[in-house]
Amino acid sequence: xxxxxxxxxxxxxxxxxxxxxxxxxxxxxxxxxxxxxxxxxxxxxxxxxxxxxxxxxxxxxxxxxxxxxxxxxxxxxxxxxxxxxxxxxxxxxxxxxxxxxxxxxxxxxxxxxxxxxxxxxxxxxxxxxxxxxxxxxxxxxxxxxxxxxxxxxxxxxxxxxxxxxxxxxxxxxxxxxxxxxxxxxx
Length: 186
Prior knowledge:
Blueprint: E1 23-25, E2 31-45, E3 61-74, E4 77-90, E5 93-109, H1 113-142, H2 155-185
Antiparallel strand pairs: 1-2, 2-5, 3-4, 4-5
Helix pairs in contact: 1-2
């Protein structure tokens, strides 16, 4: 199931109200403003319904996967998408799979380059998350299950993990050519 319409209650923030709530001011006149937010895609599957909806069943184990996907949209504009996946299982049986791609379009100006990546991968998702959390909760409730109450995410830790992973990958790629060159010399 795909929904290209915006989430109810989600819309532009800070555009008409003097930038209250939708703008973070950086040093030297830097601006960070949300232009719009929207559901790009959502899907809910309950492959074992109606058996998975019965009363007296044990609580399902729920695995949550979260990713942040940045994309430059235009000059000074970036789309940041939160990709959320929740898979609930009881033993080998899937109770439900809920997937959401919730995005926001941000306008950014006069922000130093060294602050841009943390702004896009920490602050922008932090702003979007409560709205995406509500959509996921509504989706699971509408699917016949109790509302899924996602814990708040620490996007700074997620960002640091991403940096460490990229560092390891670039280090491993740098090591592979060295090892190959040493192997050829021997």
